[in-house]
Amino acid sequence: MPADTLAEILAALESVCDLPYDDEPVDQLQHALQCAALACDAGSDCEVVVAALLHDIGRSPVVLAEIGTHAGGGHGEIAARWLAPRIGERIAWLAREHVAAKRYLVAVEPDYPLTPASVRSLRVQGGAMTDAEVTTFREHPWWREAVALRRWDDQGKRAGLRLPGLESYRPQLREVIGVARGTSAAPRD
Ligand SMILES: [Fe+2]
């Protein structure tokens, strides 16, 4: 694991500032911050807040430069590969499954609202889950968090919101990095 994981994660997030988020009216960093704020508002635990902040980190140029796209699986899989050694399996799994959670929600809530861009990407991602896939998805211990994150993902696209910035998430990032390292001592900046 890199020595300064906190700085590395912040740099990866900063690299998506001003990058377009499909056709949505926010850039990728604004989207990440809106998702994290929604997770906080819902009273989520620290790992889920960080997962909301980092779920699209697989789109970051910094992450893509390290992981590459050769292994396939899209930005959720790329995010999971990058995150797992840095901040643990739960956050990595939630980032990976935010795509599957959309397929789940569309299957169980036929009127689930998606933006036109999200409808287009759903086709590429395989469309709604089958009944068997829904059953398998619900067997995972963290499936509810994945679904909650997905709802924030689809809500976190509002233009013009003023929210806490990236720096405000340092405490949560320090905590999850410390847990992933198996130490109670949070890493210094
Ligand atoms: Fe997203």
Notes on the protein architecture:
The mean pLDDT is 91. This protein has helices at residues 5-14, 28-41, 46-54, 61-67, 74-87, 89-108, 116-125, 131-138, 143-155, 170-180. Helix 3 crosses helix 10, helix 4 (61-67) crosses helix 5 (74-87) and helix 5 (74-87) packs antiparallel against helix 6 (89-108). It is built from 10 helices and no strands. It has 189 residues and is mainly α. It is globular, with a radius of gyration of 16 Å. It has one domain (5-180): Orthogonal Bundle (Hypothetical protein af1432), CATH 1.10.3210.10. The chain binds fe (ii) ion.
CATH architecture classification name: Orthogonal Bundle
Number of domains: 1
Q: Sheet with the most strands?
A: none
User: How widely separated are the two ends?
Assistant: 16 Å
DSSP helix fraction? 55-70%
Determine the number of helices (DSSP H or I, runs of at least 4 residues).
10
CATH topology: Hypothetical protein af1432
What top-tier CATH class fits best? Mainly Alpha
Secondary-structure class: mainly alpha
CATH superfamily: Hypothetical protein af1432
Strand content: under 5%
- Helix-strand topology string: HHHHHHHHHH
How many individual β-strands? 0
- Mean pLDDT comes to 91
Q: Which overall shape is indicated by the principal axes computed on the Cα atoms?
A: globular
Radius of gyration: 16 Å
Distinct ligands: fe (ii) ion
* Low-pLDDT runs: none
